Amino acid sequence: xxxxKIHYYKRMxxxxxxxxxxxxSDPCVLNGTVVLxxxxxxxxxxxxxxxxxxxGGLWLSIILKPNLHPTKGALINFITALAMCEAIEIxxxxxxxxKWPNDIIINRRKxxxxxxxxxxxxxxxxxxxxxxxVNVNVDIKTIVQALGGESKTSAPITSLKSELSxxxxxxxxxxxxxxxxxxxxxxxxxxxxxxxxxxxRISHRLEGMGKTIIxxxxxxxxxxxxxxxxxxGSLLVRRSDGLISKIPSQLTYLQ
Length: 255
Ligand code: BTN
Known about the structure:
Helix content is about 30%, strand content about 30%. It has about 260 residues and is an alpha+beta fold. α2 (about 75-90) crosses α5 (about 170-190). It is globular and about 55 Å long.
């Protein structure tokens, strides 16, 4: 069960690196083990970006031994994003959307990032370490300064506290709801009809649903209209001829 065993640190380099080392070095590590830090000195984001992690945020990594075929690995990402969106909404009433594949946004600003490190053995996932960073009660100016300014390539950032006009959010309470939601969704893996339910829930939160997907920034070639995601993590797009195509989400962006 996720959250049953939590390794808590006041300060560390990166919960993600520590959790990956645990998963690599201990074949008996408990499924659902969490590494949580109050502050990270070397937080890791996607595309080798730094993840600035001052005190006040939620910085954690979860070790999963999901016994899943590698093609189903994207489900872990869906479920994590969905569980965190729901936890934030329950706790704050702020509407969360998913900017596929790994960002949670509120009012078009990024509040949470998700990263996954996966090892495959044979034809199944040996472990997945899913890292989640949520800007809960952090000062956005401090993060932007540490990054040397707002990123030009990714969404502008926010925190729950800024979205709530300075009101702090109880992180322990948020984490508790997140663990409840994520455990509930993980239990549904294996039941095909419940996975369909998860996909539909995440599709409803997908930023850009119904909008036109274009192939890349330079030639702006329209592919079609975004209608959802499939269980392998690709975006589903309805083309102008009515056919439905699967588009690897990393290669696309929204008009
Ligand atoms: C992204 O680039 O959007 C993903 C960011 C993931 C950050 C989290 S914070 C906890 C965990 N430890 C890390 O070093 N990174 C992830």
